[in-house]
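#struct-help
A.M.: can someone run this one for me? Single chain, 137 residues.
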Amino acid sequence: MARVVKSLGCNHMSGKTYEKKFSKVKKHFLNRLHTGGRYYDYIDLSERYWGSHICRGIFTNFLMDMGLSVTQIAIARGDRSITAAMEYVDERVTMENLQQAIEELSKCPFEKRGIIEQDIIRTNWKGGVLKGAKVFR
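D.P.: on it. Structure tokens below:
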């Protein structure tokens, strides 16, 4: 049986108790989305199954958006080392940078794709990285 340590004590709660508590939090969260003008998010999340792990990702994204360092994120998440937080941050930053690069490439006429003019490289790229791309500490 899964055991989760209660945050303020050394008591354990069963997986069943944890699931009940999470379901209560989830219900309140969905109600906030529904009444807070986030109807499409409400529909999306209420029509599919999701467990507490997705909340960890949402929390991590929130911390990243606040500009916390990887070490600070790991501490806030309760990670034993920065490895897990680093992997998550690296994946998100990579996806955001790829999306930005694809958007830039889509602006280029089809016949010129694959050809990058030197002045564009000099003005928009530095050391192989798109200038202005997010980099986390």
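A.M.: thanks! The beta strands are 3-5, 12-14, 125-126, 129-130.
D.P.: also worth noting: The two ends are 38 Å apart (CA to CA).
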